[in-house]
Amino acid sequence: MSVSVSTMFVFALVGAITPGPVNILAIRHGTARNMSLPLLFVLGASISYTAVVWLMGTGAQHFLSQPTLVTFTQWLGSGYLLHLAWRIAMAPTNPLDMRISSSEPSAWSGFVQGVASQTLNPKAWLVALSGASLFVLKSDQADAALAVFCGISLLTCLLGVGCWAVLGRLLARWLALPIRQLWLHRLLAAILVLTVARMTI
C-alpha cells in the first residue's frame, strides 16, 4: 500500500504543479495586495479539484461510456477559460503598493473563482479521470483507494497551485510599474489561450 500511496502522490503532484489554466490564474491572484485573495483562490481550487477527483472515482466508468458528455465538458470548460484569458488581458493596470485598496476584489471572490476555474478546467477532469482509472478502478478496495487518492489530491493541489501563487507574490514588487503589469497580463492571457488550445486540439 505504501508503494501505491507514493505513486499516487507523485502522480497527483505532477498533475497539480505542471503549468495549466488554474496555475496561470494563481500567478495573477498571487500579485494581489490582499494576501487572503490568493490564499482563498488556492483553497477554492484545491477543494474543487478534490471534488472532481471524487466524482471521477465514483463515476469514471459511466463518464467514459458517454463520449458526448466528455466533449461537452471539454468545450464548456474551454469557453470559460478563454473568457478568463480575455478578462486577464484587459485587466486595468495601476501603480502597485502593498496596501489594500477598496477597488481590489474581495478575498472571497478569489475562493469563488478558484472553485469555478478548477471545476471548468478540462485539465483537472482529464488528470482526475486518469488517476481514477489507475488507482481506483483497478483496486480491490475501491472505496478506500478513492478516499486516499482524494486526500492526496487535496494536499498536492494545495502545494502545486500554492507554488504558483507564491511565484505571483514574488513578482509583485517587480510589477510596481503599470507597463510591466500590462505585459504580464497579456503574457498570462496568451499562455492560457495556448493551454486551452493544446487541450482541445
Commentary on this structure:
The N and C termini lie far apart (37 Å). It is globular and about 55 Å long. With 201 residues, the protein is mainly alpha-helical. 79% of the residues lie in helices and 0% in strands. It has one domain (2-200). Residues 96-102 have low confidence and may be disordered.
Distance between the termini: 37 Å
* Alpha-carbon Rg, integer: 18 Å
Strand content: under 5%
Find the count of extended strands (DSSP E, 2+ residues). 0
Helix content estimate? over 70%
Structural class: mainly alpha
Keywords:
201 residues; 8 helices; 79% helix; globular
Q: What layout of secondary structure does this protein have?
A:
Elements: H1 2-17, H2 21-30, H3 36-64, H4 67-89, H5 107-119, H6 122-136, H7 142-171, H8 178-200
Describe the structure concisely for a colleague.
The protein is an all-alpha fold. It has 8 helices and no strands.
